[in-house]
Design brief:
Blueprint: E1 3-7, H1 14-28, E2 33-37, H2 58-64, E3 69-72, H3 73-78, H4 84-89, E4 101-104, H5 106-115, E5 118-121
Parallel strand pairs: 1-2, 1-5, 3-4
Length: about 120
């Protein structure tokens, strides 16, 4: 069964951590899944987030999965997150998209919804 994990909660939310936990469990079981970051969930892709040394870093935890990490480009830009291409296109001085994350359009979400057997939103 393929699962789409739709992350819409901010990185400070416990729900964002539950999304990561599900992804880790599915990966451990070698079950098919995809993930998509949307709405406030795109903030996990912000490379400029500071996390105290005594706390886990959600961005690094997602990167450690070594999976594709698509992020809604519109939601990201609206929250000040951009990659080099969009920074240049929109005349923004610097980019801050974390490594392994990728800005994509909503068409990718539509494709993921259509091709998944279940969708779980956090």
């Amino acid at each position: 069964m393929s699962t789409l994990i739709l992350v819409t909660s901010a990185p400070t939310s416990i729900y964002a951590w539950h999304a990561l936990g599900l992804a880790q469990a599915l990966q451990d079981k070698q079950e098919a899944f995809r993930v998509f970051f949307y709405q406030d969930g795109v903030s996990v892709a912000n490379a400029l987030q500071w996390v105290p040394d005594d706390q886990r870093h959600l961005t690094h935890a997602w990167q450690a999965l070594q999976i594709r990490l698509p992020v809604c480009v519109s939601a990201a830009l609206a929250r000040g997150i951009t990659d080099p291409d969009n920074a240049q296109r929109h005349n923004i001085q610097q980019h801050n998209l974390a490594d392994a994350f990728e800005l994509v359009g909503l068409g990718e979400l539509a494709d993921a919804v259509q091709s998944s057997q279940r969708l779980i939103q956090f």
